[in-house]
Write a structure and sequence with these properties.
The chain is built from two helices and five strands. It is of the alpha+beta class and 89 residues long. The radius of gyration is 12 Å and the shape is globular. The protein starts with a strand and ends in a 12-residue tail after the last helix.
């Protein structure tokens, strides 16, 4: 599971060929013990629980990087290498 970005203690990952359980394009995020699945480009919480403040940070990051995330998603579902994305600053 490649890590595509990290910021403010949040780790953002995207699995290869991960379109069976959640057919919607999405990312996996972790913060301390919290784990969640977030849709792209909407930033909607699809699964799990995440602290509100960190969820808002992830949603802002998803909005800023929606095009890059969708490009990575297209690569990931084909099993191709994906690219790192700049963290939230």
């Amino acid at each position: 599971m490649p890590t595509i970005s990290m910021f403010y203690g949040i780790v953002v990952m995207m699995f290869f060929r991960d379109n069976k359980q959640h057919s919607t394009p999405h990312i996996h995020v972790r913060y301390q013990e919290a784990k969640a699945v977030i849709s792209i480009p909407e930033g909607e919480l699809l699964d799990g629980e995440f602290p509100k403040k960190q969820l808002r940070l992830v949603q802002a990051w998803v909005e800023i990087h929606a095009d890059e995330l969708m490009a990575d998603w297209a690569l990931a579902i084909e099993g191709e290498p994906i690219y790192k994305i700049d963290p939230l600053k």
